[in-house]
Task: structure prediction
Amino acid sequence: MKLLGIGDNVFDHYRWRKELYPGGNSVNVPVLARRYDGSEAGYIGLIADDREGRHFLKALDEEGLDVSRVRMMHGVTARNYIEIDEQGDRHFVGNNGRETAQYQSTLMLTPVDYAMMEQYDLVHTSIHSWLDMYHVAMSRWAPLSMDFSGEYTRINMGQLCPLLRFAFFSGGDKSEEEVRTLAKAAVDNGAKTAVVTMGMRGSYLLEKGREHRQEAHAAQVVDALGAGDSFIAAFLARYHANGGDLADAANEGSAYAARCCGHYGAFGHAIAEE
Result:
């Protein structure tokens, strides 16, 4: 599979460890897909030119991503400040917000970026990538996948789902009935495949004419940060490889997410805080 991520990036700052790990859904998914099965992967986004940003770009290069369309911007790299509880679940306790290069600059997609999209089987982005003005155009150049995380509303689902091949949602705080209602709303609005992840409760997947309820695989949890992105990465890669077998792809996604809970950070490459 050839998978291109476009949009958000951030350092996850584990304050009790005094370490920062590169992340962000639009970065994690292509990196983790490449790790999963060697998928060809790339990334388009804004990265700050400070110490952390240079480390971030180096990490993506070492992971084998095409970063030729990354823009280096003067400024400070975005950080999420994170604590981890005894179950390994992440808790965001703040960020450096308005001072960051990602906040102060806007990713402007160009014809060269669209030409790059055309070379990929799938483009993945997130609701946190601030690409609202480009979603329609992006969907014309390649099938589009989006992670809504928990930031979904009737309005944005109505606008975005008609453009999406895959729509992912976080539903760990939802009942089974609410999860099924959410997935149905996504498909009814036009998404071809809707996936709702529920943490240790597994996931629910829906397409027109078929559904699947996937249980979570057992995990030795060190850090659950990036588990949802790991699920997305393996699911997308496996779904592409197996010709659209929903249950098989969901099982692979669950197994890969469990494995990725065994280390800190979404994909490693820690840098010490200064």
User: Anything to note?
Assistant: The first strand starts at residue 2 and ends at 6. The first helix runs from residue 25 to 37.
